[in-house]
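Dear colleague,

As promised, here are the two records you asked about, laid out in our usual form so they can be pasted straight into your sheet.

NAME FIELD: protein one
SEQUENCE, THEN STRUCTURE:
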Amino acid sequence: MSTVGIIANPMSGRDCRRLIARADSVSHESKRNQISRIVVGAVAAGCERLLAPWDPRRLVLGAVENMNLDVTIEEFRTPLHHSAEDTVQNVQEMRDRGCDVIVVLGGDGTSRILSKAWRDATIVPLSTGTNNVFPLLIEPTVAGMAAGLVASGKVSRDEVAQRAKVIDVAMDGENVDLALVDALFLQGDRIGN
């Protein structure tokens, strides 16, 4: 069954940069609107099953609850931490449920956390953060269609997906993290840098 999962970071586009850097704010309602369009595109392109993680803001479930679409919606719950761990657990659950493609709404950090949790995931990253390099600024309906076409096998993942650069960060010979955009080593760092 062709399966698309949606990860929506509730905190992307909502930090202090709205106040000090005149960055755009991305409301929860705006994210729900984008998710609705993603789902319409994915279903039109062949998605048969949608994986929807529960969250207290009802970003994914609130976006699809009144839509009359021919798709099986699987809600699931993981323990809530109100941190990046929520993304990690949701991504791992999607992997375990056989997800083909994940559409992720967030910034560089959300995509990094997703990639750390499931390194070989096929993702369509949509920007809802600030000053992003990795996520795309594209119409959500088109993003959903791309996800649906790949998930259904109508378009081969190998034809359209590119493996992203991953920078492994190691300390004392052990991988401790990864980066998608850049990695820095600071010596003598001070608070506020």
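NAME FIELD: protein two
SEQUENCE, THEN STRUCTURE:
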Amino acid sequence: MFNRIWKKIVAAISMLALQTSLASASVTMVNTRVIYPSSAREVSFDLSNQDNNPNVIQLWVDSSDMTSTPDNADAPFVVSPPMFRMEPKVNQTVRITFTGADLPQDRESVFYLNMVQIPPVDAANADQNQMLVMLRNRVKLFYRPSTIKGKVENVADQLRFHIKQVGAEWRISAENSSGYFISLISGKVSSGAQESLFAPSMIAPSSSADWELKNFKFDAQQPARVKFSFINDYGGVSDGESTILPATLPAVR
């Protein structure tokens, strides 16, 4: 009986993983991100089942495809155990092992750890069709070479902000000169009596990104500051502040 139910669960994962949406699962990852130092043989993280019933969990790592499944995931990592049953109110330690790949050694590489949670089926009606509501969560996994210059604790100091005009629109750009990913989650520009919130995102190492400033007009004669928040290694929020420099390029018409 159990084998038949298990086979149905495995089939459900293969067929429905593409249809699962990101959700708040009752089985949670204790960490909101995973850091994999290049010197580590493996890293571990914990899951916690807050349900009053057991759940089946499957985990895998992909490179960037939100529609990935365990069968086509292409990341150079193995999760152990990849699939298991969690009893109610228990924790489970899971290990991730790097299988080897030619990754950059001067900067981080980002991957995504997927977790699919499947609630139990009704064993009494195992031969009948049942709807399984599957919950899928994804967290970032950062592969971090030991040869990256600078300390991650000082990553906010490696951000340089500029304001530029594109047509009638004002935009703020952030340049990340570090070898680390910086996951910005909020930002605010102030200049004189003006303030403008912007919705930033993750900035890759040695790259830049820009965002629109609504209802804002930059005056290079006025001092301007940007306050921002970002996710640190522990999944918490850290704050930073910087002077905004006017862009050296002319407005784009």
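A couple of things worth noting about protein two: The longest strand covers residues 109-118. Residues 152-246 form a domain with the Immunoglobulin-like fold (CATH 2.60.40.10).

Best,
R.
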